[in-house]
Amino acid sequence: MLYPLLITFYLLGLIIAAPFHPKARKMLKGRWQWRKRMRRALPKKTRKRIWFHCASLGEFEMIRPLLDTLKKEQPETGVVISFFSPSGYEQRKDYPCDGVFYLPLDFERNAKLWYRYVQPDITVFVKYEFWLRYMQQGLKYGCKMLAVGCLFREEQFVFEPWAKPWKRCLQDFDRVFIQNEQSAEKARAEGLRNLSISGDTRFDRVLDVIRETAPMPEIELFKGENILCVAGSCWPPEEKLLQQFFESNGMPVNRKFALVPHDISKKHIQEIQKRFSEYPCITYSDWQNGADMSKAKILIVDCIGKLNGIYAYADMAIIGGAFGKGLHNMLEAASRGIPILFGPKHQKFPEAQESIEAGFGYECADYNSFEKKLKSGLGNPEFREYAGKKAKQYIVSKAGATGHVMEYLNYIIQKS
Predict the structure, then answer these.
(1) Where in the chain is the domain with CATH 3.40.50.2000?
(2) CA atoms within 13 A on the CB side of 312
(3) Fewer CB near the terminus (10 Å): N or C of the chain?
(4) What are the tens digits of pLDDT across the range 368-392?
(5) Comma-separated ranges of CATH 3.40.50.11720 domains in the chain
(6) Which residues of the chain have pLDDT under 50?
(7) pTM attached to this predicted model
(8) CA distance 81 to 323
(9) How far is CA 5 from CA 8, 157, 268, 283, 411, in A?
(10) Coil/strand/helix, residue 124
(11) What is the model's pLDDT at position 250?
(12) Percentages helix, strand, coil for the chain, rounded to the nearest 5?
């Protein structure tokens, strides 16, 4: 089988890229001597334990409602969390549980040792994170095997002819929780029978976030009496559209903009500042360090962890990513009851099409459609009120997946 060779090539690629690429460097450093780290950091098992594996921060936020509910309903159950990507590990490495680790690369020996150290009673893979050796070894180890938050499409790799070992593992899982009926139909057609349509726990999470998010008086001060548009997790395509909008229409009166780029490297922040240099703008860091923001119309947020709080003050949002590889999280904005604009590449994200059908999400395929919808959002309070109401109704109607999954988890915790 070529799979071990591919993983070896991937490791070599990380080694070659590490001197030049911070993410590759972190991935290597985080996995260096992982066995020694686990023996030192992981407490001896004295109670039942669940292992959750996430690709990155987005998948962690998907299971966060499960983790919080587990603490309340099963306080004697231990939890281990693993990440593939630094974006998850770096931000959640201090999450209170038995241990948070990078997942070692998917070699058979690594997987065997992992189960020997972690000793999970239940293993949970989140969304798409199906690593073959860890699936195979988990089934051999004898723990309960679950997948949560799955979305299956025609092009899903686990249903490709070359991926039969992955599909056989999924067929042997105790339960696969799927987000919607369309995914369930595809999974059934591929021979999966251990399915539950649970919905998406992210909807529960964004409702929790509303209750947990602290006020941000600095954003309230920046907004003042103006209409605030937030470009969340934006990339250069969204930034260029905004630049073209300002060039064609000028800076709208009594309107302000907050740009929260996905890439907050110094180089990219400087590129954004140059792009909007004709307009009064300020970075969040400069403002916090005492720079005058009284005339600023554009706030460039050059730090992480602020977006959720900023959405609380937004009157509309532009969600980045859908002019490139794919749409970023739009549910955080939707939960605040505001209209949302995004690009055309959102087919892998069912919430995007559902938002369009619900009446608060708007696909912008080009500049003309972007300009039209942005003008409507900025200038028409009835438009914002209607879309905002639809957004809130949508989020509330989709909540409840956590309870569905927890019902099964509670059952197998008692049985395991």
Answers:
(1) 210-398
(2) 17
(3) N
(4) 999 999 999 999 999 999 999 999 9
(5) 42-201+400-415
(6) none
(7) 0.87
(8) 32
(9) 5, 18, 36, 46, 40
(10) strand
(11) 92
(12) 50, 15, 35
Q: How many CB atoms lie within 10 A of CB 98?
A: 19
- Are 62 and 405 in contact by the 8 Å Cβ rule? The answer is no
Tokens encoding 367 = 């500049």
CA 356 to chain centre: 20
Answer whether 158's CB lies under 8 Å from 167's CB: yes
Sign, CA dihedral 359-155-202-180, equals: positive
Give the number of other CB atoms < 10 A from CB of residue 354.
16
Cα 193 to Cα 191: distance, rounded to the nearest angstrom: 6
Locate 332 and state its tokens. Answer: 């955080």
pLDDT value of position 305: 85
- The CATH homologous superfamily to which domain 210-398 belongs is Glycogen Phosphorylase B; (3.40.50.2000)
Between the alpha carbon of residue 275 and those of residues 246, 272, 300, the distances in Å are 11, 5, 12
pLDDT at residue number 155: 78
- The amino acid occupying position 226 is N
Question: What are the tens digits of pLDDT across the range 199-211?
Answer: 999 999 999 989 8
Span 42-201+400-415 CATH architecture: 3-Layer(aba) Sandwich (3.40)
Rounded distance, CA 77 to CA 121, Å? 10
Distance of CA 182 to the CA centre of its chain: 21
pLDDT at 416: 74
